[in-house]
Amino acid sequence: MNNDLIDKALKQAREMQKNIGDAVNKQREAMTPLIAESLKNAQELQNTLSKHAADSASITQDQTQKAMGHLQKFMRLGADAMRASAEQMRTQVQQMMDQSKEAAKSTAEAVGKEPEDVKPQS
User: Fold this and answer.
1) Residue 40's pLDDT band (boundaries 50, 70, 90)?
2) Which H or E run contains 10?
3) Which of 15, 20, 47, 116 counts the highest number of beta carbons within 10 A?
4) H/E element holding 119?
5) How many CB atoms are located within 10 Å of the residue 2 CB?
6) For 66-77, what is each residue's pLDDT tens digit?
7) Does residue 54 or residue 71 have the better pLDDT?
8) 3-class state of residue 94 by DSSP
9) Closest by alpha carbon to 122, among 21, 5, 39?
């Protein structure tokens, strides 16, 4: 796998986690654009991982599929959160945060990196 694709996947995983982390600390009105941005990051990461899966050995395809599963759940939670009340949204955003961490960890494993490589930068 080329370094540009690895760097892109790691950056997208960090951005997804950062955006949803910011949303956890905001009120509903402020959460909506952050959730939308984190969903966009998740879709971009999903596209990057799809390309990676097509180009990689079967050993990393399992890890890539695991990351894709976390991303699917993350995006479903995000779509639900966009339609929810403020309290429901906070609960769903916390679940999205948990899924973003799992997706980022699986992404790191899929591209042969450590989970620390996808932690959001402050």
Assistant:
1) very high
2) helix 3-24
3) 20
4) none
5) 9
6) 888 888 998 999
7) 71
8) helix
9) 21
Q: Is residue 53 part of a domain?
A: yes
Q: Is residue 116 part of a domain?
A: no
Q: Look up the CATH number of the domain holding residue 49.
A: 1.20.120
Q: Choose among 6, 11, 15: nearest CA to 38.
A: 15
Percent of the chain with pLDDT over 70: 94
Q: Report if residue 121 sits inside a domain.
A: no
pLDDT tens figures, 88-98: 888 888 898 89
Please write down the long-range contacts of 19-25, taking CB distance under 8 Å and 24 or more positions apart: 20/93, 20/96, 20/97, 20/100, 21/97, 21/100, 21/120, 23/93, 23/96, 24/90, 24/93, 24/94, 24/97
Q: How confident is the model at residue 61, as a pLDDT? A: 76
Angle at 80 between CA 79 and CA 86, to 5 degrees: 115
The pTM of the full predicted model, rounded to 2 decimals, is 0.66
Using CA atoms, how far apart are residues 122 and 52, in angstroms rounded to an integer? Answer: 27
Task: Check if the beta carbon of residue 80 is closer than 8 Å to that of residue 90.
Answer: no
Task: State the residue range of the domain holding 28.
Answer: 3-110
